Structures are given as structure tokens and as C-alpha cells.
Amino acid sequence: MLSKVIDLKENETVKTLSNLIVIGLKISMIVTIVGFYFYLLGYSFLYGYYFSGNLSGISSITDLLNNPVPFNFYSVMIIAIFLLITVLFFYFLSVDFKNKKIETIFFGIIIFGVFHVCFSLFFVNGSDSGKVIDFLFVWVVPLFFVIFFIWLNQFSKDIINCFSWTLYGAMVHISFFELLKWPGYWNPLLLISMMFLFGGIFPRLTSNFLRRNLLIKSIVIFPFALVSCAFLFVVIKQLAGFPHIFNLYIITPISIATALIISPYLKPNKEIQDITLMAAVQNDTDNNSSNDKNVPEFLRALSQLERTKQFIFVLIVITFLMTIFPYTNVVVGKYIREITPSERREVQIIKDYEKGLTVEGNVISIHNNIYYISDTNWRLQLIKGETIHVERKPEE
Question: Rounded to whole angstroms, how far apart are CA atoms 374 and 337?
């Protein structure tokens, strides 16, 4: 009996079937996770459009969790599929840019421009062609994904250098935010975008010089020295009660001096030394299997890291994916609603005769006799009852 089982396991047909089952399970799991996540993003967009309010503030992620709205499934899926397609479009466009495929990039930009013009004119009902420029912010979310993946590639290969330039991005944003005068709810997105851009681009320029150039070493160390000095000065201020000790004119020179002193003793971190090794492994893999060429670079680099660093890396990715990107979609939904002509909104009057309640707004969904209403201030209102009457508000 045992020999028959062993023979069955060695059978090529059984092996093929078992491999197909494993592949099918993996594909099903990936499709489920990706589908659920992009459904969450589509849901976040609709929540931002209908329930993010008129004020400069905006709904937080906790509002989405504490006050769920049963949006129409197909509406959410249409937005999710549209978002997924645009993310893939920008990702492959970035790959072509990296591979210097000029003709493909040029053709892709033309297609994107035509599609953007048609999409924006449709959304504003063709009433204001000047809003075509305003609608460029619709593509913040897919571009955000691409920037995030570029940052992941650098972070997985050169953690210290990437994190240093990420801090530089935060410093630059904080320094110039007052000059930008953007609405307050854009501030977190601009901050994170600047951090990802700096952390994804500049480490590529400094990694080769970090081994031998003391100035580059000092530049990389400076943000850590600045943050450390600032933290130390805050602690001293709280403990000793010195009100004027926290001053950038004092902290910055000390941080620069600290970076210059430490830089000669800084050795290239293990991640930088491993770049050559990972490149060699990548070349061997490419020679053995052409399919691995389609695997994102950060996934190949992730497999070379230690377990602890892999855990930190995955934790960072999950944190950003589950917080920043849904928030970004809420902001984009609110932004699109704000630049859409207000006269397109047909306000309804919702009356609950049993409770004597009247709300003006729009019924977005009805579930179990609960009316989910976006009021005139674009806030969520709930009315539950069986004697509710909805009518269109007369035009004034």
C-alpha cells in the first residue's frame, strides 16, 4: 500500500495536477487580496466624494470604519477597476522609462493626454474646459503607487541611505509648506509624496559615493543627527525648563558638526555591500528563468534580507497601504467633488413623518430601512424608519 502511494506521488500527471492546484490557490489568494484592497480604495473615493464635508478638514480613516456606508457594489467596483488599470498603466510606463523605450513612452503619454481630456470634460459636463488642468490631480493615487514602489526598491536595497533622504524630503516640505499655501487636507499627501520622491531618487545618486566620499557620508548622516539633536533639546527643555533652548539656529550647526565628526567612522552599511551580491543573484536568476524578469525589483531584494528586516519591510508596506492610500483616495474624492460644478447637484428633501425629521441632501444608499444621506454640508446623516418620503427640492 505504501509503495503504491509513493508511486502515485512520483507520477508525472499527479505532480502536474498538484502544481496546478498550488498555482491556482496562489492566484486565487492574490486576486482576492488585490481585489479587496482596490475595492477598499474605490469605497474610500466614494466616501470622500459624498461625506468629507465642506470645511478644510477631511474625514479620517476611522470615520470610514466607524460609519460604514453600503455603497452600490458595482459603483465601487467600477472605480476600483479604473484605479487598478491606471496604476498598471503608470507602472509599466515607469518601467519603459527606466528601460529608455522612448517611442513607447511618447505613445503612452499621448494616449494618457487624450483620455484625460475626454474624462475631465465628461466629468464637468463640458461646461468648463479650464478644469482640464484641475483634473490632473485625479491621477494622484496611481502616481502615488508608482512613487511608493520606486521608494520600496531603494529602501529594500539601501535602508540607511534611503531613510536619510526620506527625512530630507520631510524637511524640504516642512520648510516650503508655508509658501505653497495648499489646503490643509493636502498637507499629509504632499509631505509623504516629497518623502517618497527624495527617498526613491537621491539614494541612486549617492550610493556609489558613500563608500569613499566624506562629504556624501556627512550629508547622509545629517538628518539623523538633526532629529537626534532636536529630540535631545526637547527633552532638556522639558526637564530643565529652558524655554528658548529649542532653536534651529543652535541645533543645525551642532547637527552639521556631529555629522562631520561621525562621517569618517561610517562604514558602508550591509545593504550597500549587498547590492553587488543581489545583482549577481539577479543575473543568475535571469539566466535560469526569464519569468523572473517580471518580478518587481524590491521583491527580489526582499528575499535577500534577514528575517527581522523582512518583517520590518512588510510592516511598513502594510501600514502605508492600509492608511495612506485610502486617505489619499478620500482626499481625491473630495477634491473632484469641489471642482465639479455645484449646479449639477439635485438636492432632495427627506422627511420622516413619524419622527418629524427633515433633512436636505441626497440619499446615497438604503439598507434595512436605514437611509444614508449626504446632507447639504456633505456630511453623513442617518434616518431609520418605514414612513420616510423623498422628494426633489424645488429650484429657487
Answer: 13
CA distances from 10 to 5, 7, 22, 310, 341 (A): 9, 5, 17, 35, 68
> What string of DSSP letters covers 31-72?
HHHHHHHHHHHHHHHHHHHHHS-SSS----HHHHHHS-----
Grid cell locating 111? 494616449
| Helix (H/G/I), strand (E/B), else coil: 243 | coil
Instruction: Identify the DSSP state of 393.
Output: P
Burial status of residue 41 (CB atoms within 10 A of its CB: 0-12, 13-18, 19 or more): buried
Q: What CA–CA distance (Å, rounded) separates 323 from 188?
A: 12
As a whole number of Å, the end-to-end CA separation of the chain is 86
d(Cα 151, Cα 272) in Å, to the nearest integer? 15
Please state, in angstroms and rounded to a whole number, the distance separating the CA atoms of residues 281 and 339.
50
pTM of the model: 0.72
pLDDT single digits (tens) 70-116: 888 888 888 888 888 888 888 787 777 777 777 777 887 888 888 77
Nearest one of 242, 255, 158 to 199, comparing CA atoms: 158
Using CB atoms within 10 A of its CB, is residue 181 exposed (0-12), middle (13-18) or buried (19+)? exposed
